[in-house]
UniProtKB/TrEMBL annotation:
Transmembrane segments: 12-31, 37-58, 78-96, 133-150, 156-174, 186-207, 219-241, 253-275, 281-300
PANTHER family linked: SOLUTE CARRIER FAMILY 35 (PTHR11132)
UniProt biased composition (Polar residues): 314-325
Residue span of region Disordered: 302-329
Keyword Mitochondrion found: no
Every Sugar phosphate transporter domain range: 24-297
Membrane topology: Multi-pass membrane protein
Name assigned to this protein: Sugar phosphate transporter domain-containing protein
Organism: Arachis hypogaea (Peanut)
Keyword Acetylation tagged: no
GO cellular component, one term: membrane
Pfam family, one: TPT
Length: 340
C-alpha cells in the first residue's frame, strides 16, 4: 500500500472516529436532558453505572464470540483508572450541583491546560507557538459563548478541582494504557467497564440521594422513562467506545480541544429544538471564534514541530509511546458504524 493511500485511509478513519464520538456524545446529552428534565430521573451517577453495565454486557458477548481478544492488565492499573474515572464523574456532577453553570463551564475549559501539563510532564511533549495560540483561541471562543454568571464557594471549588484533575488523568490514562499494553479501544473498555459498573452502582444511589434528596428505588418508573433509560444506556456504549478510540488515535489534549465542537453543536441543536431565546450576537461570536481556533489547532498541531515528543529525555524502559496499538478492532467498529 502506498504512503498516499495509507495517509488517505488514516484521514478517513480519523474523521470517522470524530464523527462517531460527536454523534454519540450529542445524542446522549439530548436523551439525558429529556430523561432528567422531562421525566425527572435526576440520578446521574446511578445512570452512569447502568451505562457501564450495558457496556460490560456487550463487551462480554463480543469476547465470547471472539471479536475481542483477552487482555491482561495489571490490577494496579485498573484500580488507578477506575479511581480517576469515578472521581471524574462524581467531581463534575457535584461541581455542577454546587457551583453556577458559568463556573462549571470554566472548570471544563481548564481541562485543556491541565491535559497539556500532563503531556509535558509525563510525555515530554513540546507545543509550537501556533499550537499554543490556537488552544487559547478555542478556550476564548467557548468561554464567550457558554460562560455567563460565575459564582463559586469553597466546597464547590474543591469539587471542581477534583473533577478537572481526575478527568484529565483518566483521559491521559486511556492513551497510556493502550500503548503500554498494545491493545485496542474495545479491549481496554472490556477490561475497565466491569469495575466501573460495579463501583458506580455501589456508590451511585447513595451519592444521588445525597445530592438530590431522592431515592432511585422510589422513582415513579413508567414505560416511557424506562425506554429513555434503555436508549441512554445503548448510546452510552458508543460514547464510551468512541472516547477510547479518539484518545487512542490522537491524544487527550486533541480530544479536549476538538471535543468542544460538541459543545457548539449542542448549543446549536438546543436553539433549534428548544427555542432561540438564548441565541444572541455574543453566542454567535463565541462559536465563530471557537471553530476558527479548532481549525487552527488541527493545522498547527499536524505540522512538523507543532506537537512533538522529546523522546530522548525518557528512559527506554518507560518509552511506552513506541509500542504499537492494535487498531484493527477499532477500524471494524468504525466500519460497522458507517454502514449502519
Amino acid at each position: 500500500m502506498s504512503s498516499a493511500s495509507k495517509g488517505d485511509r488514516k484521514a478517513t478513519l480519523d474523521a470517522a472516529s470524530w464523527l462517531f464520538n460527536v454523534v454519540t456524545s450529542v445524542g446522549i446529552i439530548l436523551v439525558n436532558k429529556a430523561l432528567m428534565a422531562t421525566y425527572g430521573f435526576s440520578f446521574a451517577t446511578t445512570l452512569t453505572g447502568l451505562h457501564f453495565v450495558t457496556t460490560t454486557l456487550l463487551t462480554t458477548i463480543l469476547k465470547s464470540l471472539g471479536y475481542i481478544q483477552s487482555a491482561h492488565l495489571q490490577s494496579s492499573d485498573i484500580i488507578k483508572f477506575v479511581l480517576f474515572a469515578n472521581f471524574s464523574i462524581v467531581g463534575m456532577n457535584v461541581s455542577l450541583m454546587w457551583n453556577s453553570v458559568g463556573f462549571y463551564q470554566i472548570a471544563k475549559l481548564s481541562m485543556i491546560p491541565v491535559s497539556c501539563f500532563l503531556e509535558v510532564v509525563f510525555d515530554n511533549v513540546r507545543y509550537s507557538r501556533d499550537t499554543k495560540l490556537s488552544i487559547l483561541l478555542v478556550l476564548l471562543g467557548v468561554a464567550v459563548c457558554t460562560v455567563t454568571d460565575v459564582s463559586v464557594n469553597a466546597k464547590g471549588f474543591i469539587a471542581a478541582v477534583v473533577g478537572v484533575w481526575s478527568t484529565a488523568l483518566q483521559q491521559y490514562y486511556v492513551h497510556y494504557l493502550q500503548r503500554k499494553y498494545s491493545i485496542g479501544s474495545f479491549n481496554l473498555l472490556g477490561q475497565t467497564a466491569p469495575a466501573q459498573a460495579a463501583s458506580l452502582l455501589l456508590v451511585g444511589p447513595f451519592l444521588d440521594y445525597w445530592l438530590t434528596s431522592k431515592r432511585v428505588d422510589a422513582y415513579g418508573y413508567s414505560l416511557t422513562s424506562i425506554l429513555f433509560i434503555i436508549l441512554s444506556c445503548s448510546i452510552a456504549v458508543g460514547t464510551n467506545l468512541s472516547q477510547f478510540i479518539c484518545i487512542g488515535r490522537f491524544t487527550a489534549v486533541s480530544f479536549q480541544v476538538l471535543g468542544h465542537m460538541k459543545t457548539i453543536l449542542v448549543l446549536i441543536l438546543g436553539f433549534i429544538f428548544f427555542g432561540k431565546e438564548g441565541l444572541n450576537l455574543q453566542v454567535i461570536l463565541g462559536m465563530v471564534i471557537a471553530i476558527a481556533g479548532m481549525i487552527w489547532y488541527g493545522n498547527a498541531s499536524s505540522k512538523p514541530g507543532g506537537k512533538e515528543r522529546r523522546s530522548f529525555s525518557l528512559p527506554k524502559t518507560q518509552d511506552y509511546s513506541s509500542l504499537p496499538v492494535s487498531s484493527e478492532p477499532d477500524e471494524k467498529v468504525l466500519a460497522m458504524a458507517k454502514v449502519e
